[in-house]
Design goal:
The complex is a heterodimer. By secondary structure, chain A is mainly alpha-helical. Chain A has one domain. Chain A contains 11 helices and no strands. Chain A is globular and about 55 Å long. Chain B is of the alpha/beta class. Chain B has a domain of 141 residues: P-loop containing nucleotide triphosphate hydrolases (Rossmann fold, 3-Layer(aba) Sandwich), CATH 3.40.50. Helices cover 39% and strands 25% of the residues of chain B. Chain B has 10 helices and 10 strands. In chain B, helix 3 runs parallel beside helix 6. Chain B is globular. Classes of the chains: A mainly alpha, B alpha/beta. Bound molecules: adenosine-5'-triphosphate (ATP) and magnesium ion.
Chain lengths: 281, 238
């Protein structure tokens, strides 16, 4: 029972990280239709930010976190300006920015890999290690509540949703489509960065940490569906529980554990391509 | 108030609008007629900035809108009730109206009161999801939503399409009230009786060009009214 509870808490904490990455995807997919696989690299960049500010410069955690997240907002905003807006303005479909963002993914990883030593670099825990999982869960819940309130209760959030529902109608309301896109990328980068910063103490900052996170987050998104914010968290939790309980109780070698999210992804794409939670139609 | 000169616009290589000239004076109600595919909705899209490829001049209160983005055009005081209504189905009536006012600075309550006063049916259903409204109510919502931005020029693209006569009368009465407040209206309407009964002047658009401009009173007296589109289209091809 003890063992089970500990496993459940730890699965919840990893599920939260997956949920954050899924939320980052969702923030960008909803208004633009663009799947941005660079979210994993954004998480990685934030983890390295944590290493530089918190480990090397020993800044207090809240300050370091604040700087990293502010920097990530900027990264997302700049990415949209460089890799997305020029294509959208030329009338390209969603595939062009998706490919451009894959380029961003590779470039980001190369920049980090030449700028830092290749070994995993430590990032400190925000709180005492035995409470850290609860810290991760608490921060994630706060982010999801804030995101939910934003989308349901503010004009800004409704504008984002309106763009998701019908771009043309949203434009006719006077909603500035480019600004919504820019904000969704800035927000997506910050949320992905938060996920990276939160997971970094457990797995260390490493230039290859991005792709697994991108896959796990995407799987969580597919499970939960792109329709609703809550779906991202639910998908993340389900994936993490499935993953951890398979590793713990199923007789498969640890090396195969990385395949579990991909297996889930395939099963879900076949069985429920729209995700668990339906968008309110 | 609105002067369109030599407006060209379209979606792909061949432009749909091929040099449209049209004007609407302040306080006027103008109808835009024309057969299916003539480019009426394309003109509405070009005026509101939702298609990219446009050239020529759209002068509204002495600002050229041809180079402006759709949100800037709304800020200038032009609002469109689009063909097919395009309400946001999962949002409540009130949220739909709220989005119509994203460009409005202050006086939000005043706009709600105005729209609910014009369409009391919307006030009764303010928490209801727009997707569950009847067709007529959705059209009222689409008009109310456009009015939330407090426009000086209201564009309407076939607002009566597919509606029962009773609802048509209700919406016509509301538009009549709007006209009396001094609002300028440019309305796409295929049904001649409605267009002629409502507007003071009409344009007929054929294949992306204005084929006819005439006062509705004299237009209504034309004997060949039924065959108008046909004769114009033939003349146009010749
Ligand atoms: N989004 C689009 N992409 C490409 N072509 C389009 C698009 N919308 C309209 N067209 C084309 O432009 C032409 C004019 O269409 P438009 O909708 O402006 O006509 P309309 O006069 O409004 O007709 P209707 O009375 O049927 O509404 C048509 O040939 C149509 O096929
Ligand atoms: Mg049309």
């Amino acid at each position: 029972m003890q063992d089970f509870l500990e496993l459940a808490v730890s699965a919840t904490a990893s599920g939260c990280v997956y949920g954050l990455i899924a939320l980052a995807y969702l923030l960008m997919i909803r208004p633009t239709g663009i799947i941005n696989f660079a979210v994993g690299e954004w998480a990685m960049v934030a983890a390295f930010g944590g290493y530089v500010l918190l480990t090397q410069h020993e800044l207090p955690y809240p300050l370091g976190m604040g700087i990293v997240l502010a920097f990530m907002l900027l990264v997302g905003w700049v990415t949209e300006r460089i890799a997305v807006r020029p294509l959208v303005e030329k009338g390209a479909g969603v595939l062009a920015p998706i490919l451009a963002l894959l380029g961003v993914l590779v470039i980001t990883r190369e920049i980090i890999s030449v700028s830092f030593p290749p070994d995993p670099l430590p990032v400190p825990f925000a709180v005492d290690i035995q409470y850290y999982k609860y810290f991760v869960i608490g921060i994630t819940l706060a982010v999801f509540v804030a995101a939910w309130l934003f989308f349901e209760k503010t004009v800004w959030g409704r504008s984002f949703e309106a763009v998701a529902l019908n771009r043309r109608a949203a434009a006719l309301m006077g909603i500035n489509l480019s600004r919504v896109t820019a904000f969704s990328f800035a927000g997506g980068a910050a949320v992905a960065g938060l996920g990276g910063l939160l997971v970094a103490p457990n797995i260390s900052a490493h230039y290859l940490m991005g792709v697994p996170l991108a896959i796990q987050g995407f799987t969580a998104l597919v499970i939960g569906g792109v329709g609703r914010v809550e779906g991202a968290l639910l998908g993340g939790l389900l994936l993490a529980f499935a993953e951890q309980f398979t590793i713990r109780y199923a007789p498969i070698p640890g090396g195969f554990a990385q395949g579990v999210p991909l297996l889930f992804l395939m099963i879900f794409l076949i069985m429920r391509p729209t995700g668990l939670l339906k968008a309110r139609a | 108030m609105l002067h369109i000169r030599d407006l060209t616009a379209g979606y792909g290589a061949a432009p749909v609008l091929q040099g449209v000239n049209l004007h609407v004076d302040r306080g006027e109600t103008v109808a835009l007629l024309g057969p299916n595919g003539a480019g009426k909705s394309t003109l509405m899209a070009a005026l509101t900035g939702t298609i990219r490829n446009r050239s020529g001049e759209v002068s509204f209160e002495n600002h050229n809108l041809v180079f402006e983005a759709s949100h800037a055009i709304v800020s200038r005081g032009v609002a469109l009730v689009p063909e097919g209504r395009l309400v946001f189905p999962p949002f409540s009536v009130e949220d739909n109206l709220r989005l119509g006012a994203v460009r409005l600075k202050g006086r939000l309550q005043e706009r709600y009161d105005f729209v609910y006063g014009l369409f009391p049916r919307l006030a009764e259903r303010r928490r209801q999801a727009a997707g569950t409204l009847s067709g007529g109510e959705q059209q009222m919502l689409a008009i109310g939503r456009a009015l939330m931005s407090n426009p000086r020029l209201l564009l309407l693209d076939e607002p009566f399409l597919g509606l029962a006569p009773k609802v048509v009368a209700e919406i016509r009465a509301a538009l009549e009230k709007l006209r009396q407040t001094g609002l300028t209206l440019l309305m796409v309407e295929q049904k001649l009786d409605i267009a002629l009964g409502f507007a003071s002047r009409a344009y007929v658009l054929i294949k992306g060009r204005v084929a006819l401009e005439e006062g509705t009173a004299s237009l209504a007296r034309r004997p060949d009214l039924r065959d108008l589109y046909f004769s114009l289209a033939t003349a146009h091809n010749a």
